[in-house]
Amino acid sequence: MNKSIVLADNRPPYELDIDKTLLFKTLSMGAKRIFFAVKREGEYFVSRIDSIKSKYNVNVENKKASIKIEIKLAGMITESKKPLSNKELSRYSKMLDEEMKEKVSEFIHEMKREGYDPFGFGLKYYAHTLPKNRMTHEEWVEAYKNADVEVIVKSSLKSTGSIQ
């Protein structure tokens, strides 16, 4: 799948490019395996992520929303422009963590800015809040736009594959 479209009431369809579609599939548990490029610290490699687990929590206090997203990844490096060492796997995993965190944070902030909630943060809030304590829909929309978002990524790269 190369593109996705996000729909919302009273909003025009919002088209996601290939990279954002990949992030959407990763976060929504729709992806079984992804290939994710990392470009950091003078390194460039492509990792094949075989295990993706994500969960999120939505907290609201005093009409201030906070969203915490946790992503766990496991896989291996499949491509690189230069030889990589298995001894450096923890460093490569950290680089993957940073790259994924940056991309996911940018994507979530873009969705908030544009007024879309493709992951159902609002639905989770309404489902886990007693009716007498809930914000109105308009209050939630405003709280969502201003929500603090924390993204935590923990990855485990097991191998550099045949690149050594």
Side-by-side strand order of the widest sheet? 3-4-5-6
The Rg value, from CA coordinates, equals 18 Å
The total of beta strands comes to 6
Which runs of at least 5 residues are low in confidence (pLDDT < 50)? Answer: none
- The protein's oligomeric status is single chain
Overall 3D form? elongated
Number of helices: 4
Structural class: alpha+beta
- Report strand %: 35-45%
Q: Please give the largest β-sheet.
A: 4 strands, mixed
Order of helices and strands: EEHEEEHHHE
The helicity comes to 25-40%
Distance between the termini: 32 Å
Average the pLDDT over all residues and give the rounded result.
Answer: 91
Describe the structure.
- The chain is α+β, with helices and mostly antiparallel strands and 164 residues long.
- The chain has a four-stranded mixed β-sheet. Strands 1-2 form a two-stranded antiparallel sheet.
- A hairpin with a 2-residue loop joins strand 3 and strand 4.
- The longest helix is centred in the middle third of the chain and has 26 residues.
- The radius of gyration is 18 Å and the shape is elongated.
Search tags:
164 residues; alpha+beta; two-stranded antiparallel ribbon; 4 helices
Give the structure's gist in a few sentences.
The chain has about 160 residues and is α+β, with helices and mostly antiparallel strands.
Helices and strands, with pairings:
Layout: E1 4-6, E2 14-16, H1 18-27, E3 34-40, E4 43-61, E5 64-80, H2 89-114, H3 121-127, H4 137-145, E6 148-157
